[in-house]
Amino acid sequence: MLRNIAVLALADVGVFELGVLCELFGSDRTADGLPGYDFAVATVDGRPVRTGAGISIDVQHDISRLDEADLVAVVPYGLDHDVPAEAIMALRRAAERGAWVMSVCTGAFALGAAGLLDGRRCTTHWRHAADLARRHPLAEVDPDVLFVEDGKILSSAGTAASIDAGLHLIRREQGSAVAAMIARRMVVPPQRDGGQAQYVEAPLPVIECETLQPVLAHVIETIGQPHSVESMAALAHMAPRTFARRFRSEIGATPHDWLTNQRVLFARRLLEDSDLGVDTIAVRAGFGSAATLRHHFGQRLSTTPQAYRGLFRSQPV
């Protein structure tokens, strides 16, 4: 069970990403029935660390704190600094004893320096992907995804992708209900997970659209109904062509792609959290038939609903 988390802060640590991990794992939500974590931020020598924003952060732990963690995470740091030998050895020890090892943004370079990316798929911020591949040619760097899980090595892209990766890990270890509750507390969308291991998807962007938000909210609430571009356009009081153009401009996808993605996401939740059969789930998600559900699962996740349920069924916390 994921209970003990240590975050390694190296020189010029990224403030935002460090804050994300503190919010995900360092906030006490046990009063809400959520699991608690033994959370700590550590530096190599236990002394304060300077951030990329020019301020310093005081910590209570040195590198030895990583040796007792279920999850060791490395947040972004200044790439003009070498990774200390003590950090490299601590990361290797964590991987060898089976702990989760996670990188956020340029934290992947520390994992690379420890040899943990050799022969693995991984990612980092797209601006640094080519450099990561050049420095670590044995790593398979994918610059087009939010995060990648390969074994127990989890790497994420920049900034907000740290939220997605963290929620994915919580969901993986403690179930979708826990991840959804934490996401709700953080006021972030729980559906921006990366899909399953080895089948990572790049989800559509979060919707913050004053014009279309009421329509999209209604569609999600009634996802099992036979929605179409025409019916959504009518809800928005627009002609279908005008609606489709505005939808693509504001949402970054076609109405059909967005609707299909929402149906798949809803089906995934039912597969994880219920004992409903695939035929019933297909109807409730608006696909109509199990064959159509299997088709879209194969297209988007490269797996079947049955296989997905076997891998991602929620476990009791």
Radius of gyration based on Cα positions: 21 Å
Mean pLDDT: 88
Helical run tally: 13
With strands numbered from the N-terminus, the spatial order across the biggest sheet is 2-1-5-6-10-9
The 3D shape can be described as elongated
Main sheet summary: 6 strands, mixed
**How far is it from the N-terminal to the C-terminal residue, by CA?**
8 Å
Strand content: 5-15%
By secondary-structure content and strand pairing, the structural class works out as: alpha/beta
How many β-strands, per DSSP?
A: 12
The poorly predicted ranges are: 191-209
Give, in order, the helices and strands.
EHEEEEHEHEHEEEHHEEHHHHHHH
Task: Describe this structure as you would to a colleague.
It is a single chain. 43% of the residues lie in helices and 12% in strands. The chain contains 13 helices and twelve strands. The protein has helices spanning 15-26, 85-96, 107-113, 129-135, 161-174, 176-186, 213-221, 229-235, 240-251, 255-273, 278-284, 290-301, 305-312; strands at residues 4-8, 38-42, 49-50, 56-57, 71-74, 100-104, 121-122, 140-141, 147-150, 153-156, 195-196, 199-200. The strands form four sheets. It has a six-stranded mixed beta sheet, sandwiched between helices. The protein has a two-stranded antiparallel ribbon with strand order 3-4. It has a two-stranded parallel ribbon with strand order 7-8. A hairpin with a 2-residue loop joins strand 9 and strand 10 (153-156). The longest helix is centred in the last third of the chain and has 19 residues, at 255-273.
